[in-house]
Amino acid sequence: MQPVSFSKVIITDNFWAPRIKTVSNVTIPVCVEQTEVKTPRIRNFEKVARKQGEKHEGIYYDDSDVYKALEAIAYSLKNHPDDKLEAKADEWIDKIAAAQQPDGYLNTYYTLRKFEGKWTDMEKHEDYNAGHLIEAAVAYYNTTGKRKLLDVAIRVADNIDSTFRLQNRHWVSGHEEIELALVKLYHATGQSKYLNLADWYLQQRGHGYGKGMIWDRKDMGVKYAQDDVPVKDQKQIEGHAVRAMYLYTGAADVGAAKSDAGYMTAMNNVWEDVVYRNMYITGGIGSSGSNEGFSVDYDLPNADAYCETCASVGMVLWNERMNLLTGNAKYIDVLERSLYNGALDGLSLSGDRFFYGNPLASSGNNSRSEWFGTACCPSNIARLVESLGNYIYASADNAVWVNLFIGSNTNIKLKQGNVKISQQTNYPWDGKIEIMVSPDTKSKFPLYVRIPGWAVNKPVPGNTYKYIDADNSEFTIKLNGKPVKYELNNGYAVVNNYWTSNDKITVDLPMPVRKIQAIDSVKANQGKVALQRGPLVYCVEQSAEINNPTDIVVSKNSVFTSAYRKDVLGGIVELKTNMRDNSVLTAIPYYSWANRGKSNMQVWLPLSK
């Protein structure tokens, strides 16, 4: 399977198209202003080019935020062409190129320190910065056809390759990212040395080469790195959540490109450990603030949940790769959960406020911020939303997969000819999806339509979460208005048909309000339930009717109604139920909380006995 590139997908969706527009019109300009005016990130590149002995400002990994912003801009230029924004990107690229050293090295922190300590501290993010540069360069080249930043990235990668791999010098990246970026560079250039360098990075882990580095200290009570055992031998998730996601995305990429079953087996084992025992109902990961990551199985506190926005972005990246490797829809189920809940919560409805961490409960002390000292999340959520088209469709020589239900259209080239695919839907508010299939000429091929686990009484893969209320509603699939024969295969309904122009598949996924309970091993949620409708997890936020959500008690027999309110929080489906005291309990989608200021909030609600 190969993903259909966002550049070939036009999103017309009523839910996502306005959000993409907001990111283009609001979020990216905020990132540009913060990067160029309010913080010294661009200024550091200018200092390097001037060669006047000026001091570095900011944090040693700040270069990466410039590159992530550029990547978001690259996607935005495809979605919403903007000559002024493209000129600004070109201006930044000129400054980045001017800061590159004759041997290809590029890092403003060390260059302004006259290279003192260069490539001596694995934690100092030199290759992490390089990875984000490579990702930005590939994205900008794919959108604009301009090679300047790509050529800079190639020289950076060549410098790393000659510094390490050819000399057989050991190095364990403190913050993974370079691995997945090098695979992108391999695909963009066709140069196998970049794939081999990515593999080399993976093979460095788990042999003791990183011992003694600050990020490998165990005195903080929890692990931080993913370096205890070689990657192919890893079975359990540990350490920093974002770093882990980038590592495993890179491992899946290398495993796919090299057809290496060792990486594939390891990724499946680690994935089960994450999803079965260490994932929040929102698709967020990373319960511990001390290491910004994982602690022990089933340790999933709510108010203290770290759940970094970047980690949820990483879950989207990793689960897409796992789906492409295996053809199993369960990975898209998790991707969707992280996308609509854990990741989307990190971006305000206005597009100019952000969450770094995403707790599942609040006593009114959480608010969205304009920016952060460590500013990885704003540009990360921006690049995810702008590149959303990457995750909707996939294809092979003679098959098409519909993974996400997002109003859109695309043209997919199959072995036997082109086929136009379009979707119309009001998802996630409504479960009706219409898929138009129009091949250039009549042809037979299988169409794989994902049937979400939440629609077949399995909210999340594994046994940690389950529905406690019975629902016998069944999904339906029709072709041109009539029932059609299909087979269920790895979470997909497979319709193998002779397709002609404007054939219409109609999928109807029931969206009752469901109550979810966690197993007793999740101590934080014992005796509590969470609410879900379709792919969305709901929460109760302080309001005029509800002073303190922690006082709410839900009955197992509580009946919730749902209704679309276009005047509330940008347009949402609200859930309501009558309480014993005749008050009305209102729940809103988790992603939308804290958009009206600080307030108390609960995802998990006490269940009456």
TrEMBL record:
Residues 400-511 form the Non-reducing end beta-L-arabinofuranosidase-like GH127 middle domain. Residues 513-606 form the Non-reducing end beta-L-arabinofuranosidase-like GH127 C-terminal domain. InterPro entries: 6-hairpin_glycosidase_sf, Beta-AFase-like, Beta-AFase-like_GH127_C, Beta-AFase-like_GH127_cat, Beta-AFase-like_GH127_middle. It holds the Pfam family Beta-AFase-like_GH127_cat. GO terms for molecular function: hydrolase activity. The keyword Hydrolase applies. This is Glycoside hydrolase family 127 protein. The keyword Disulfide bond does not apply. Residues 9-389 form the Non-reducing end beta-L-arabinofuranosidase-like GH127 catalytic domain. Keywords: Hydrolase. It comes from Mucilaginibacter litoreus. It comes from the Bacteria.
